[in-house]
Amino acid sequence: MRLLMMGTGTFAEPTYEALLASYPGEVVGLVTQPERDGGSKRGSTRQTGKGMAAIAAAAGLPVVQPESINTPDGLAAYRDLRPELVVVAAYGQILSREVIAAPTVGIINVHASLLPKYRGAAPVAYAILSGETQSGVTIIKVTPGLDSGDMILQESLDIRSDDTTGTLEARLAELGARLAVEAVAKYRAGGPVEGAKQDPALVTKAPKIKKEFGLIDWSKPAAEIERHVRAMQPWPTAYTFLHRPGKEPMRVIVSEVAEFPVRWDPNALPGTAFTDPMGKFPASFFIVCGPEDNGATRGVVEINALQPAGKKRMTAAEFLRGYPIVPGMHFGPEVQS
Question: Global pTM?
Answer without folding.
Answer: 0.94
